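Bumping with the actual sequence this time:
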Amino acid sequence: MLEVYVDGDACPVKDEVFRVAKRHGLRVFVVSQGPLRVPDDERVEAVRVGRGFDAADNWIAERIAVDDIAITADIPLADRCLKRGARVVGPDGREFTDAMIGSALASRELAEQLRAMGELGGGPRPFEPKHRSRFLARLEETIRSVQRSPRPPAAPTSS
């Protein structure tokens, strides 16, 4: 069954994920290092991980499966999820794909180097209402795409 994994510490669209997932009957894991409030719904689970570097990313990347959906703005995490066959949607509605992840990783690396040299300031773009509506459309489209795609047969179990 399709599951949704939310990189929860700084995710501005958690409420939207909860609404869409409820409409589709999907299980949601909201993973964070700190406490988060989630709806009182048996299909929504808040997962609190330790304080280690990339602890939330590691938890998600170790569990996400083919055609599950990750919600994250973290490019290295998006890359790890794509390598496991998952779909990845950014909170701004951007879809991460195998075709673009390499250039996204390279751009991220370049930006980090420029910031370290003092050549680039600031951080990510401000989150705007248009991002929320683009996210909702992309999440809905991604869920429907997964639901329409043929699922591989389950592997036989040995008795």
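The tokens above came from a reply further down the thread. The longest strand covers residues 27-32.
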